[in-house]
Design brief:
α1 crosses α2. With 355 residues, this protein is of the alpha+beta class.
């Protein structure tokens, strides 16, 4: 009865331009359906419930309410009656494949919370959700504990409403939904790239231009499968664009601000390495070796000391802006520079003053 295609937003599984985004990979399911010519008229919520048997009627209803069900190019309500030949596009938020979330009393920095959502300023070193090698001790485990002790939390979500994510060693802001409707509404904004986010990064070298743009497809490295690689000729990977602006220069290291047009896996890390400015102390991309500077024992010891102060790649999700699912007002948050990056920059300034 159905001609269907499904885009599970996982790296290298689909050619959809929205796929393989680091912040939503594996969190959303994009379904395209062409209704069979023999289909009898049927309410779209019932139609989708039959088609997506792993969804609930409430989930379908809230997905429609959030504007995530598009028929022939227009959003529809749950009582829309499906007709033969209709082109249906649905964006469904769904949980990571791990189904068992163990609540754990882990300290987290909640900067905002209401009945619809929570905004968290994640510390570096914390994995966002359980997965291979990290089955507990994650942000999701901490949030499950936090929600469980909240007497006003009556969400019908079957898990913590993760909307997007950042790498384990990336610090900064994340928004988490507390209701099915909030999850669907926020998911659409991230999928359509309508959120406002800026990242702070320390990179090796003195970046030549005060502002610039890096454009190049990002895909798996041809030799090192643990890295992503920039294919400037577009021969592999997915289209990606990163804008950057210099905030401060430290002679052998530069503090920059990054704005992403796309959100590919490791986009900032791969793009900056491509232009010769690998993230400072990014072990996966060889940024944990001395890449710039002078060949003096004193300088080498200084850099090693900074590595100890900042024992991870220097990347921070500094800002987060989105439209609130209920009030429809824009919300905007800023996270200050984390202590390890602040300490590292202070040491660089002191070093430059004395040398």
């Amino acid at each position: 009865m159905l001609d269907e295609t499904e885009d599970f937003l996982e790296d290298e599984l689909t050619n959809d331009d929205h796929s393989a985004d680091e912040e939503n990979s594996g969190l959303y399911e994009h379904v395209n359906i062409t209704v069979d010519k023999k289909q009898e008229p049927l309410r779209i919520d019932k139609f989708l419930l039959i088609f997506r048997q792993n969804s609930s009627r409430n989930k379908i209803s809230q997905t429609c309410k959030a504007g995530n069900v598009i028929v022939n190019g227009n959003p529809v309500k749950q009582n829309y009656r499906v007709k033969p030949g209709d082109e249906i596009s649905v964006l469904l938020a769904h949980p990571p494949r791990e189904n068992v979330i163990i609540p754990q009393d882990i300290p987290i920095n909640i900067v905002y919370e209401d009945s619809d959502l929570v905004v968290v300023d994640k510390d570096p070193g914390m994995v966002v959700h359980p997965g291979f090698g990290n089955w507990d001790g994650t942000l999701v485990n901490a949030l499950a504990f936090h929600f469980a002790k909240d007497p006003n939390f009556n969400s019908d979500l079957d898990r913590v409403g993760l909307v997007h994510r950042i790498d384990k060693d990336t610090s900064g802001l994340l928004v988490i939904a507390k209701t099915e409707y909030a999850l669907s509404y926020l998911a659409k904004q991230f999928f359509d790239r309508k959120t406002k986010r800026l990242y702070w990064a320390f990179v090796w070298g003195n970046v030549k231009d005060d502002e610039g743009t890096v454009t190049g497809h990002i895909g798996r490295h041809p030799k090192n499968r643990m890295q992503m690689f920039t294919y400037e000729d577009g021969s592999h990977g997915k289209h990606a664009v990163t804008h950057y602006k210099v905030l401060e220069r430290f002679r052998y290291m530069t503090w920059i601000e990054c704005k992403l047009e796309t959100g590919r896996t490791h986009q900032i890390r791969a793009h900056l390495k491509h232009i010769g400015h690998t993230l400072f102390n990014d072990a996966r991309y060889e940024g944990n070796i001395i890449m710039r500077g002078v060949n003096l024992p004193k300088y080498k010891q200084f850099v090693q000391n900074v590595f100890e102060v900042l024992p991870r790649h220097a990347l921070h999700a500094h800002t987060l802006g989105f439209i609130h699912p209920t009030t429809k007002k824009e919300m905007y948050f800023e996270s200050p520079m984390p202590k390890d990056m602040q300490d590292a920059s202070d040491r660089w300034r002191k070093y430059l003053d004395n040398n």
